[in-house]
Amino acid sequence: MATVEELKLRIRELENELIKSKQKQSDAEHHLRPKIDQMSAEVVDSNPYSRLMALKRMGIVQDYEKIRSYAVAVVGVGGVGSVTAEMLTRCGIGKLLLFDYDKVELANMNRLFFQPHQAGLSKVEAAEHTLRNINPDVAFETHNYNITTMDNFTHFMNRISHGGLEEGKPVDMVLSCVDNFEARMAINTACNELGQIWMESGVSENAVSGHIQLIIPGETACFACAPPLVVAANIDEKTLKRDGVCAASLPTTMGVVAGLLVQNVLKYLLGFGTVSYYLGYNAMQDFFPSMAMKANPQCDDRHCRQQQDEYKKKEVEQPKQEVVQDEEEVVHEDNEWGIELVSEVSEAELQDASGPVPDLPEGITVAYTIPEKLVSEVSEAELQDASGPVPDLPEGITVAYTIPEKVRPTEL
Ligand SMILES: [Zn+2]
User: Which residues form a coiled coil (predicted)?
Assistant: First the structure.
């Protein structure tokens, strides 16, 4: 058995080790890599941008360096917002503005990004610290407040319209990663008034569905024109929340939604691929509904209606271009919001793609339902059709799936 003296000695040894390890950690934290003036495509292990710049060589993005000229505001640095901010930081965005009033809690550890030792710190402070270490080339601006109170809202509007990469200029994109209706409406109000393009994101309270939505004031439906996914119809959200009952969340769904959101931001800012107006994610069926919604002329937000008028004027002033394609048929014109839904699917297909409406608390409706058909299994014959020849592979290697002949392009 060890004597008290021996134990005291052991404690001292361990304390010294702890101090040393803390010093090492703090050294590492202050050893930020030097800033990089110019993004380079040079393929060396020390270049943090080589894999991103390779997107140019691959013909995906024309001018990747442009990412450094953009400022993006992320409102809500929780399960979706923190991952969104990390992705943009790693991609080398010019400037990030982070807004959140919450603190990191151990109850957040089922999600990505934050770590247990950060519990108690403000989310924006903890996030900035981590992100600066990952990429010191990004400029950060953090605001530890609730944007929905009157004073903070005014300040929020001011930073959106003046906090761009060059002070005085507006930011290039606002991302809503908040978890409540009130904050979404605040962002919506601000962006409608400023004519600021933004993207909305959300994850359902049962953790198995989510969505992203691009909102161009005056052109596409704003959040007040058509609240997506869940509609809290003039009911105080606090009355919907009961004591001891909290929303469920999964790191997977939140990671997927953050990924879809940032992918859409990159496509929008860097000009590649097709930018989605609305993209849903239903994790239960792996169903990704997408659509575009026009602004509602009867929207409650007067700034939205004003932006619509201005957009119409601009449209008229623009020189008429020969329309090659026929205008898409507008379906569901007579819904309760007066929204025109342009869809690629026919009425019958739409009906097939809908399922039973689940039981929900008062004031909440669903934006889409899960079609019964998707639940059915694929037949053997269909499976065979969906497979192709197995390629020649070295011994011990097999393929997870093959490409059916039907979908192979004739020329590669
Ligand atoms: Zn609107």
Answer: 4-31
